[in-house]
Amino acid sequence: MTVVTPRVRQFARTMHVIASVGWLGAVACFLALAVAGLTEADVPTLRAVYLAMDLTGWSVLVPFSIASLLTGLLSSLGTRWGLLRHYWVLVKLVMNLFATTVLVLFMTMFIQPLRQLADAAATPSAGAELHSLAPIVHTSGALLLLVAAAALSVYKPRGLTRHGQRTQQRRASAPPAGTLR
Amino acid sequence: MADPPPQHPDAHGDIRGEDPGKAPVGGGSPTGPPRWVKVFGLIGVVLVALILISLLTGHSPGRHMTGGLGGQATPPMHPGAIGVMDRDGPVLLRGGAAS
Fold first, then answer.
1. Between A6, A106, A129, which is nearest B17 by CB?
2. CA A23 to each of CA A26, A103, B38: distance values in angstroms, whole numbers, following the listed order
3. Is ipTM beyond 0.90?
4. Which of A67, A165, B68, B69 has the fewest Cβ atoms nearer than 10 Å?
């Protein structure tokens, strides 16, 4: 039985698309900063790069990831797609949880220390020591993951989980319930 | 005004609340997961294993850092610096200058 009204469903879906697309776009910008963090030699520039990554990470990426997770939960639980019935929904949930967890760890373990190191670097020649490949590796992985999640949302590959199969069998054996909406 | 029922579980490509589960499961056996799920699962397991291995072996975050290779390239710091770069990446100190 679907509890969520169609209006709430549409709102949740709209917010889910906005959050997910915003997350993807922010990660693309983050990747540009990550490349600058590896290639720039100028310490003031590196300070600006890591400051920008720190700020956008906590104020854009993390909120978008959490918003995407919450609106995705609402969208799936509010419809008969369900959260655990179709593999593509379940896989997207796992991907979102994984990406959000890694993002928070990454911000804490990489970006904040890098920003502090860049702030503390005394001479312009210290730029080479502030170079890091880690942001590029992590951001590229996030980009691939989000593109895969977007593709899953569009293609919705077939496949019912065991729970979904049981639900389908119960529904098939039940008397017709009229219009589904 | 009801939407017509989809011919495919995902025929409408949205989540408007139609019954999405009428067609047989494609790409796999009736009870087992489809092939694409297995591929995604395999990639996920490999990723998690790599992360666990890197954490357990002390191959922590800053291993990707180029500046810390060999543990010798430590950036010059201001007095009262808060961190140093070692071979495992950024290591935070508290209130001390890097040596």
1. A6
2. 5, 11, 26
3. no
4. B69
Quick: pLDDT tens for B52-87.
Answer: 888 788 665 444 444 443 333 444 444 444 444 444
Per-residue pLDDT of A14-26, as tens digits, reads 999 999 999 999 9
- Could A116 and B92 be called an inter-chain contact, meaning their C-beta atoms sit closer than 8 Å? yes
| Nearest-CB residue to B75 (from A81, A129, A148) | A129
Nearest CA to CA, how far is A57 from chain B (Å)?
17
DSSP per residue, A84-134: SSBHHHHHHHHHHHHHHHHHHHHIIIIIHHHHHHHHHB-SGGGGGGG-BSH
Coil/strand/helix, residue A165: helix
**In chain B, which residue's Cα lies nearest the Cα of A128?**
B67
